[in-house]
Design goal:
Number of helices: 23
Shape: elongated
Structural class: mainly alpha
Strand content: under 5%
Radius of gyration: 31 Å
Distance between the termini: 88 Å
Number of strands: 0
Amino acid sequence: MQSTIVMVNLFGAVALLLFGLSLVKDGVTRAFGARLRAGLAKGTSNSLRAFLTGLLATLALQSSTATTLMTASFAEKGLIRSRMAQIALLGANIGTAITAWIVALGIGWMAPLLIFTGVAMQRVSRSSARQGGGFAIVGIGLMLLSLELLGMATEPMRESRALAAFLGMLDNAWPVALIISAGLAFASSSSLAIVMLVLSLSSAGVLTPGLTIALVLGANLGHAIPPVVATLASAPAARRVAIGNLVVRTVGCLVALPLVGLNADLLQTLPLHRQNLPVDVHLLFNLVVALIAWPFAGALTNAIRRFIPDQESGETGPRYLDEAVLDTPVMALSGATREVLRVGDLIEAMLIRASNAFNNNDLSELRDIAPLEKQVDVLQQEVKIFLSRLGRHSLNEEDGRRSMLIIEYAVNLEHIGDIIEKGLCDQIGKKVTNGLKFSDEGHQELKSLFDLTIDNLRIAQTIFVSRNSDLARHLIEVKVDVRHMEKRSAERHLERLRDGLIESLQTSSLHLDMLRDLKRINAHIASVAYPIVEESGLLTESRLRPRG
């Protein structure tokens, strides 16, 4: 029963530490998220600035994992060079070690004061930044309180024979101890939590110096794994950053582990307090690794690029949907807008290929359309999921309206992709496969409608970004012209049928079906203009108001 109570207290203290860490991260992100991300993106012009930026960002966020993921996302977008990203992560790892060292200074008496101050700030202030700062201060207070609770929870372990026997086995199997510690750090996504746990056990006198060092090394290795898992589905540039950090941690641990016994004896000769040995080792290990790995950051980046090369242009995943900015609506909406513009570019490529296949009787132009349409489906689905998650945060009226317009445009583009793949491609394929020939007039009418549709899509892309009411009105007027073109072309086609023109007889159904599908595509394209025209007061319930 006593052992159960000890374990509950121990796990509760660790859980409180992790909760405090999450409060600090969320609070700092809420208060300074946009500036932190901007600073991380811009502060990497040279090696020293990259290192300091990574260190400071981690001290602010209290999470090297968060810093790693942000750095990886910036590398994916080309905002940070890969070599600078690796150096920034060396600073991030030292930032985590400094945090552990500060928390272990014996300032737990400040916990109640910090919690009270943070709650007061959060309750009294209406400023989002100050409320975020309040959350962060509460988180720091909880971290200090959790360290006190960890110390109390581990005191009874001095008398535990079972724990002594288990730790005795680990003391003779440092690689196993390292793996166990790495697993705990991976499960908790925090090296700080595991180092604090090791600190409490070491202070209770149940760990030898050698075992302490092995466990600290495992915590350093384990905390590098979650970013690798989180970026598995990301672009190669992002994966390379996370894997590079793991490689540096792994090599450092493999080199340091055989020297644990020597290092333990050496550390005991230094003027270090044994009760602070875990945090001292944690900081020293990361400093040494940074000094050694820094000059080889470029070589490491090049080596990893050989194993994880850039993908070809067929890459289908989103590029601009950064989950790290979900708490900053302006940046999240900007990323979603860029992603939907990319969808529009894919639709334009599909239309151009379909037009070329129609004009040149070339089936090879159609082969890329199905993969492009699948990519459109993936991206529009990712945009909808991303913005639905954004909707869970507090959005003002304008941001909420913008979010809905982005989703509507993405859905319309996806419908266009379906029409091209399932309609136009099938009709063009029948034309080429069966050797059918349109009349000269019929071919020119469809060619002109194809060209106009591509031009209209380009205008729609511009309207989607600029929200220009004049362009929006023009696009709606062109939609009316398209309707008239479709009607006149159908009438002339029927006239040619009455005149007995053989080409028209053979291609009658294809001609009418293609007219219908191009008209539907233009209707979806023009839909982007209606909300803008309506906001400008230029739209009646059913038609545009006349000029003048």
